[in-house]
Batch of 2 targets.
Target 1
Amino acid sequence: MSSTPRIVLLPGDGIGPEIVAAARRLLDALGEFEFEELLMGGCSIDAHGVALTDAVLAACRESDAVLLGAVGGPKWDTTDPDAPRPEQGLLGLRKGMGLYANLRPVRPSPALVGASPLREERIAGTDLLVVRELTGGIYFGDSGRDGDSAHDTCEYSVAEIERIARAGFGAAQRRAAGGGRSARVTSVDKANVLETSRLWREVVGRVAGEYPEVELDHLLVDNAAMQLVSRPAEFDVILTENLFGDILSDESAMLTGSLGMLPSASLGEAGAPGLFEPVHGSAPDIAGRGIANPLATFLSTAMMLRHGFGRADEAERIEAAVDAVLERGLRTPDLLGGTVAPAPTPENPSPESEVGTTEMTDAVLAEVQLDLP
Ligand code: IPM
Ligand code: MG
């Protein structure tokens, strides 16, 4: 990597430009970075007729890391199989950059446990990581329409399963080393029905032999969906294939009380640039109103610093700043769940207060800079 990291910014659609601009301010406060801002998603369809141009893919591959806002919106929603869709840009990036490992950590911020739809005692202590296979399975198998029927094919090779399994076991090992916990991988499949799942289970079991200190168990995906809401705190690493990971990661995100809080990293081979993005979507209904929650993008920026640039100290500084502003009661509207922020009282002088993107960003910046050496 060059001394000044080169980051491609893909703001995308909806609230994407607002939250990526906020992240850019955060990065500028932390140090020196080179930015290149490019079109991907619906905005690229409008400009070029495709969601991802070859030039943008090439720029991403040549960068040190890619930070993405969100793509999509009603303007480009269609069931026409021949029309371009914003999501194709994201899938094209994943495939074109070889980003087979998607990491989605779920750790409810202490100040937000009350915002979870689950009872506090259920989610207390939840700290899990979804490791989702990202470039295979039904997302990338043969698909099409034939007269009045349609098909999507799910396919996995041993090599694809092996490398994502190693990513999962490796992550469990590192989490245990960092946090004094025992390492456990829960592999999720549908081995009672699907052949790809039976291969998955076999290969994951074999790879587990390389990691004797990591405990492995297997869950069927329907059971996993249930256990996630009934005993989330007992999970460590959830290792799963592409489609199941898509679904379970949204479910896990809700444990934190807001989809607006969940970051993600998509990684390929060691040394190749990764892609970092909030898990939430483009929220077209609130775009341009200055109320988008930038926190998941800040936490994704932290993942970029940690996984992309090996700058774990700064990552932790951002994570601590996010916790601190939430602790002080600052809330974008999505974190208030439709309720009106209460007025201060003598018993509770700093209750939750509703803020917009700029105020939230200012507060996080102030925390991060307070903390600078
Ligand atoms: C995600 C999203 C994407 C996916 C969509 C936008 C293609 O839901 O990153 O989880 O299904 O992978
Ligand atoms: Mg999803």
Target 2
Amino acid sequence: MKFGGTSVEDAASFERAAEIVSRERDRQPVVVVSAMSRFTDALLRSTRAAEAGELEKANDTVATQLARHLEIAELFNGDERDSLISNIQLARIEIARLLTALVAKSGNRLALVDEVLSYGEQLSSLLLAGVLRRRGVVSKQVDARRCVITNDEYGCAAPLAEETAWSSRNVLAPFLEHGIVPVLGGFMGATVMGQTTTIGRGGSDYTAALVGAAIDAEEIQIWTDVCGVLTADPRIVPEARTIPRLSFSEAAELAYFGAKVLHPKTIQPAVEKNIPVRICNSRLPQAADTVVCASSETARQTVKAIAHKTGVTTVQVSSARMLGAYGFLRALFEVFDRHRTIVDVVTTSEVSVSLSIDDTSTLPAIVQELSQLGTVSVEKDRAIVCIVGEGLRGTPGIAARVFNTISDINVSLISQGASSINLTFAVDQSHVQETVMRLHECFFELGARRISAAAD
Ligand code: ADP
Ligand code: ASP
Ligand code: MG
């Protein structure tokens, strides 16, 4: 059972999360929890301030956030209260030490940042285990670094599959055998040498899936602030509604192309062990939710959801040398490989290749190398829109409906995913809201209006 930041944002939400766990107590739950909402952002800001030499500002940022944790600890009584408060004070001292090291530029900068960031999850797991105990649930905080073993790519470390499975099983089994609910922080791990790492922003979902797969869980539950995966991002489309069932492939595409409700890597461990992933609302535990499992039925209108991702850059390489030649694409992708840059969408014509990337930190070097292969053009501030649904490729008329609906918006990089369940394209970032709203209306609202009009 994984609880996201907004599910542990204050005392009341900690209580709600604990209530949800206590109802599942007979199913031997393992709990994974994110940092309290906004805390990771604040910790990251404090590391940046420290790196800029502003130690006081860095410590102040942390202190404001720690006060939120202390408020919750103050609600306890006796030894539990004292122990929680002293643990939070210890965290403050330790974070201050790490920030000072960042100011002094002593030690591996990225390793220090990860260690600071891990305090978000260290403290939320400490508090949630306490809140559970107060409700009579036998519970203990477990250091996630004993379970999730990663490589040393700080900031976005890759979990080592076998080591993580083995360690998670060994660490967690004794708790489960004795009826104790283990509570571990998401997002963080450690290298085989024990150095703290983090596995990428939003990574607590991934922790839950890794741990769930390791212990052969019956189900992986992601408790968040919305009623499951919705037909579009509710911040853009307030009318978006819950999708009751998604296949692993549909959910993976949606997560990859921007549906923030699931970290893109969450699905992979679940697929390997065929474990259903359930996404539920911690504020409305009885409300509709989404189950992601091996197969799902084709939706009436085929399209199940629309995801979008902003901040995308598209790169086009044109060269007559590509015509009828082999080895060109290899040379092109090797450039991205060398710069460890992930390519999302790719389309090709006779003489050009267009692709999209998220991370532009190495773009100048990439462009320089690509220029040796052909003429390069770069477009920033683009967005990817992705229409997902099983059976999309086999259903005539979908692409026509999509592009008719947005016929006045300039579209590029059109790609029918190789998985046959998605249709992806790029638009200018300034048009993405309009695009998603119109497509949602076309596929989800007009049909519903017609049905309700017929019923009237
Ligand atoms: P948590 O803190 O629980 O991990 P996140 O903020 O990471 O929660 O993810 C939940 C948010 O994802 C929602 O509040 C919503 O704004 C956003 N979101 C984007 N696309 C979707 C979608 N298709 N369905 C549901 N939520 C979405
Ligand atoms: N706390 C981490 C973040 O904000 C991980 C997570 O919430 O999943 O990115
Ligand atoms: Mg999240």
